[in-house]
Specification:
It is built from four helices and no strands. By secondary structure, it is mainly alpha-helical. Helix 2 packs antiparallel against helix 4 and helix 3 packs across helix 4. The radius of gyration is 36 Å and the shape is rod-shaped.
Amino acid sequence: MAPDHHHHHPSTDQLVSLFHKSHHGLTMIHHRLEGEFHQIYPDNANPLKLVSRIKKVLDDVSSLKDQCQELLAAKQDLIDQARTTLVGNRSLLRKMQASMSIPLTSDSEDPAYANFNQIIDEWTKQVQSASGCEEPVADAEDLNKLLFSAIVRNS
């Protein structure tokens, strides 16, 4: 006859019974807590997952700030290079015009130069109005910092 595996020594029977009762009690507590959880946090809005998502968003914002700084520096380099090239070309053109006795064109008569300056002026005004700064910004890097702080503050 095979031994009965469910029959234990009397002292262990009480312990096994206690474990079964504890398991049943913990299962009931689990179901009750799960029900309360779904009432408090509908649509499976798990607070731990929400905290995790918030941390990820904060990390992404930090990364985006760094990328914005790099982008603003690159933009400023591009503007500086374009300004240097345009002013240099304009100076050479004026020298050529003078050497050939051709009347010099004024800044307002040169559409490319006037348009470039207008774009830079409009950009500066836009950045100043977005940041709430009324004073003219003398340094282009200050302008970039102003723009960046306005972007970060508004987001």
